[in-house]
Design a protein that fits this description.
By secondary structure, this protein is mainly beta. It has three domains: 184 residues, Sandwich (Immunoglobulin-like), CATH 2.60.40.420; 173 residues, Cupredoxins -  blue copper proteins (Immunoglobulin-like, Sandwich); 163 residues, Cupredoxins -  blue copper proteins (Immunoglobulin-like, Sandwich), CATH 2.60.40. It contains five helices and 33 strands. The strands form six sheets. Strands 11, 12, 13, 14, 16, 19, 20 and 22 form an eight-stranded mixed β-sheet that branches. Strands 1, 15, 17, 18, 21, 23 and 24 form a seven-stranded mixed β-sheet that branches. Strands 2, 3, 4, 6 and 8 form a five-stranded mixed β-sheet that branches. The structure holds copper (II) ion. Copper (II) ion binds next to loops.
């Protein structure tokens, strides 16, 4: 697959490496379902010498980012969703996906969006551990999409209705009929439903420790567009007594930061690019783009906002809700305008990860966050009265070494508010117990080979991204037994990092090990295994960063939700996939079964 890294005329080592990556991708793994021989025939050993340095996102040179002033809008705080209804004795929420208009920047006309309850940013759920809730997700959207649908993408072919939705609560341990299966979609008024649709009302047991989950659309074939349109979701905070006892910053000192990148036209409308035509290979999807990277960053639905803070501790629940972009964030002292002054800002104390609190705070000056990851962070602004800090980003796109557009700023914090009251919040040295799952307890190891396929040289336009050379529609190949522990090895043969998400479970990262792509297959390791980062283990994760030419091992116990009452052999269908939405959308997603 074409890589963004520039190497002059393209005949340097980078071109050679890209060719080898392509071989790895085309050959794939032995024993995979369907397609391997065909793909090898379609993609013979590429003999090109001319590399092309695509921007994965077609370049846009007329966007509003060129003239928008940064840090002139206050950071919005998402509202908390409430209900006074109950269903079978549990709180019942009726959430409607509706069109809306919202001003996203002082100087930009209102933007047409779709939002949960007509809100952007989406409202936050606050729930207690062990107290289930029911949610009826309803589609009150028009029949036509306002973003460019690619009818050649699997799941979006005619006569599939244009606008369909299904909501996944990311990180939740829920039954399959409440998990938002991509083919359990529904249209306005449930008039049409997908083949896996079973119920209008979802049940969330909330039988897991305090953490930050998030909900977002997951409809097959248009997830990337629905999320981009505003259904990229909001936070869902599970609280428990243990978390309460820690005395962490709370109330108005605990703030979600939901980060997304976008392109805007000067009239305020969202711009989602389409594939630049020109490749004669008819298998290249004509509209789908392989990744989306915008030039504008929003936090909680506002473009490059600022937050005025008191000189005290704050807790930020950071969520990367972008389609494809990774962020590598630092805090740097700045002018009010965001101009960097050359001095570092306060450190990040990361206290939690995807699935709950870490054992102890981890101090970092830089945070790398992939799409769908959550980082629960305390920042102590005490002692910084009168100063401002810009949250910067320098993660290449595609990560880790692409050459697509990188917005260098995210938001600004201004420590200009008087301390309302003494800061009595705490940052305890011990936060949680995270028992490590022993690799010796694993009953099965499975391999997931990530590959990407390109059209023939010299075009090399991406056609699709895959796992084990299997399509979404191929039979299930991963069927862990309920309650059993398994190790999954994510074998990344591509040139890009992929954030891999497994539904239902919270897993632990064991290690990462680099292999020699020029000899693959077989898998020949050329470096010792590397321990995960200190904010990755011990930790509960549901999304893991899988680096290029690297095997990433994760271990999980495939427990079903409470009340599953599985009969022997009964199958419970879930999903795992890359959380780069443009990849997930074009085959880098597979069903899996937990078997009773
Ligand atoms: Cu991916």
């Amino acid at each position: 697959m074409a890589r963004g890294k520039t190497s002059g005329n393209g005949v340097g080592p980078d071109a050679k490496r890209r060719r080898l990556l392509k071989i790895g991708g085309a050959v794939g793994v032995g024993g995979a379902v369907g397609g391997t021989a065909l793909l090898t025939a379609l993609f013979p050993h590429p003999a090109h010498t001319q590399a092309r340095h695509h921007h994965r996102t077609p370049v846009q040179d007329n966007t509003a980012a060129r003239w928008l002033t940064k840090f002139v809008d206050r950071l919005p705080i998402p509202s908390t969703i409430t209900t006074n209804q109950t269903l079978n004795g549990v709180p019942f929420y009726d959430v409607r996906m509706r069109p809306l208009q919202e001003k996203l920047h002082r100087d930009l006309p209102p933007t047409a969006l779709w939002g949960f309850n007509g809100l952007y940013p989406a409202p936050t759920f606050e729930v207690r551990r062990g107290r289930p809730i029911a949610v009826k997700w309803e589609n009150n959207l028009p029949g036509r999409h306002f973003l460019p649908i690619d009818p050649t993408i699997h799941g979006a072919e005619p006569p599939t209705p244009d606008v369909r939705t299904v909501v996944h609560l990311h990180g939740s341990k829920s039954m399959p009929d409440s998990d938002g299966y991509p083919e359990a979609w529904f249209t306005n008024g449930f008039r049409q439903t997908g083949p896996f649709f079973t119920t209008q009302t979802y049940h969330y047991p909330n039988d897991q420790q305090a953490t930050g989950l998030w909900y977002h659309d997951h409809a097959l074939g248009i997830t990337r567009l629905n999320n981009y349109a505003g259904l990229g979701g909001g936070s869902y905070f599970i609280r428990d007594d243990h978390e309460d006892s820690l005395g962490l910053p709370s109330g108005r000192y605990e703030i979600p930061l939901e980060i997304q990148d976008r392109f805007f036209n000067s009239d305020g409308s969202l711009l989602y690019p389409v594939q630049t035509p020109g490749d004669p290979d008819t298998r290249v999807p004509p509209i789908w783009i392989p990744e989306f990277f915008g030039d504008t960053v929003l936090v909680n639905g506002k473009i490059w906002p600022f937050l005025e803070v008191e000189p005290r501790k704050y807790r930020f629940r950071v969520l990367n809700a972008s389609n494809s972009r990774f962020y590598r964030m630092t805090l740097q002292e700045s002018a009010d305008t965001g101009q960097v002054l050359g001095r570092p800002g306060p450190v990040f104390h990361q206290i939690g990860s995807d699935g709950g609190l870490l054992p102890a705070p981890v101090t970092r000056t830089q945070l790398l966050i992939a799409p769908a990851e959550r980082q629960d962070v305390v920042i102590d602004f005490s002692g910084f009265r009168g100063k401002s800090f810009v949250l910067t980003n320098d993660a290449p796109a595609p990560f880790p070494d692409g050459a697509d557009v990188v917005p260098p700023d995210i938001m600004v914090f201004r420590v200009n508010q008087p301390l309302q009251d003494q800061d009595r919040s705490r940052l305890p040295a011990t936060l949680n117990t995270v028992p490590l799952i022993s690799p010796a307890s694993s009953v099965q190891t499975r391999d997931l080979v990530l590959s990407e396929l390109d059209s023939a040289p010299p075009f090399e336009n991406p056609i699709m991204a895959m796992i084990n050379d299997a399509h979404w529609d191929d039979p299930v190949t991963e069927s862990p037994k309920a309650g059993s522990i398994e190790i999954w090895r994510i074998i990344n043969t591509t040139g890009d990092a992929h954030p891999i998400h497994i539904h239902l479970v919270q897993f632990q990262i064991l290690d990462r090990q680099h292999f020699d792509i020029t000899r693959y297959p077989p898998l020949v390791f050329d470096q010792p295994p590397q321990a995960p980062e200190n904010n990755e283990r011990p930790a509960w994760k549901d999304t893991v960063l899988s680096y290029p030419e690297t095997v990433t091992r994760v271990i999980a116990r495939y427990d079903l939700p409470p009340g599953a009452n599985a009969r022997p052999g009964q199958k419970f269908r879930y999903v795992y996939h890359c959380h780069i939405l443009e990849h997930e959308e074009n085959e880098m997603m597979r069903p899996y079964d937990v078997v009773g």
